[in-house]
Structures are given as structure tokens and as C-alpha cells.
Amino acid sequence: MGVAAVLLATACRSGDDARARMRRLEPKLLASEQVDSCLAELRTIDTASLIRPADRARYALLHSMALDKNYIDTTDLSVIAPAADYYLRWYRPSRSKKFYTWYYKARIEENARRYDAALDGYLHAEQYMGATNDVYRTRLYFGMERVYMKTLSFKDAEESVEKALYYAKQDSNIYNIIVALSDCSQHASNRGESVLAKEYLSECSDLLSDSDIYAKGKYYNAKMVYYSSVIPINADSVLLYLNLYINSGVSINPVSCAVACVKIDLYDRAEEFIQQYDTTSLSSDDFAYSYYYCRSRIREHKGDYQGALSDLRKQENLIDRDYMFNVDNEIPYTSDKYHHQISRPRTFAKSYCYAIVPE
What we know:
2 strands; about 70% helix
């Protein structure tokens, strides 16, 4: 009996210590302060001492938060499962706990490329976003933009990033403002709305002096997309921002670079970028459309018209009929649903003819 009492007292003390440490770490993680040391300290907590469901839930949520803020993209839902079971099913927590649990559950689903589940999580989190701050509201809509892009829902993606821009401005976060403006510009460029795209970029350029390399990389990419979308295409400007982008120190998007190269007839260089693209995620990637477009143009340039036609058929299967990329800046028409100026890819008809009667 005495031994049991001692063990119980020890467990209680360990639990009290863990609770005190989690209370201290939580505001730091929410404010993104010392996130690496927070994760290290969380890993020293003896989870066996977390007897209460509330403690296990809190630890799971903080652990998920710490992993995400340290750019550790876990795909393991068991990390956040105790928080989801407690905060979303059995317990009636504060609205903020519901927001963070849904948000970080969505982040894990997104990491695992389970985009429908990720979107479900983000949409649930949106219901409780009044309980958080503008930083998290911005992140929420960035997350929704990414998932909508992955599922080729471009109109929803654009609406999401516009909301992200609004909350980034509310928060006066220069990095997030530049990222949101750059994304808004790219959406406008892809629709053929060059004037609007230029307005976003102009607003963005005024903030660059106070930004880091990652924000500048996003801006250079957006400028490259803009100059490769306007008519007539200015090859020198496309090349300038292509080189600034790939030398900015950020991880580049090879498909975006390939599209720019194709637009100015640099097919060999476009092929180099296409070969850098990880095709393992091609079935669930927003850049699959542009990937097939670029590869078809490269094959067409080499005289492989059957291969070009095969790629263009794959590309055509991905097209959202109401809202599609402005890949060739030709034959503008207006979508009845969204009333956006968009373009039909000339290459499909052109390569189809070549495939039947090669020149």
C-alpha cells in the first residue's frame, strides 16, 4: 500500500510538472517564439505522466503546433489524435481550442496529400477563426488556397488568397503581404488580367526592401509569370526575373520556370526544368496541368507530335471548364460562370493537326 501511494504521489508530481511546462510553452508557440527550443522541451516531457485526457490533448496539440512551426511536415494523424478525440468529440472546449485542433489536423492531412480531408479541416477551422488572431487567419486562408490549387479549384483558391491578403494587411505582416500579393498577381496573370496583375506587383515592390529572401523569391516568380503572360511577351524581362528567381536562394518551382522558358522558345532550358520536377505527385498536383503543357510543347518542338498530343490530352482532362489557365494568350473568351477573360490553349488544336499530318 505504501509503495502504491508513493508511485501515485510521484505520478501526480510529474503530471503537475508537465502541466506547468505546457502552460509556459503554449504562449510561446502561439506567438512563434523560440519554436525550436519549445519542441525540444516538449520532447523531454514524459507522456506516461499525462494521466488526464485533458493533459494528453493539450500535449498533442502543442506537439503538432511545434512540429509545424519547425517545418517538420508530419503525416501521422496519431500525433494530434488525442487532441481531436478530446476537443472535437467528447469535451466542450473554448472556440480557440477547436480552431487550433481543426487547423493542425488539416495541416497534417495536407502534408499527407489527403486534400479532401485537409479542406474539411480548414473549413471547420474557419467556423472558429473569430477566436484566434490575424496571423492564424492569414495562415488558414493560405492553407485553403494551397488545397484548392491541388484540387484544381482555381476560383476558390483565388478567393482564399484574397482573404489571406486582407488579414495579412490587418496584421501588418510584410512577409505574408508580399506572398499574398504575389499569389494574387499570378492568379490574375493566369486569367490574362495583366493590368490587375501589375497593380498587385506594384504594391508588392514597395515592400521588398523590408522583406527576406523568401518573400523576394515569391515576388520574382510572380514577375516572371507576369512578363511571360502579357502580350507581346518581353523575352528580356522574362529572362531577367527567371534568373533572379533561380538565384534568390529559395526552393524554386521548376514547372513555373519551364512555362516561362517555353513562352520565349527556350525549349532546351525548359526541358532541364521539367526534368527536375518530382512526378510522383503528378496525379494530385496543381502543376500537373502546366507540366503536361510544357512537355507537349517540348515534344512538339522536337517533332514528336504523337507524344505532344498524348500530353495535351492528359492536360485537357485536368481543365476546369469554368476557370482555366491562360496558357497561350490566344482566343480570349468569357466564362459564363465567373466572367473572367481566359484563353483556350491553341497548342491542342495545333498539335492535333500535326499528329495526324506531320509537317
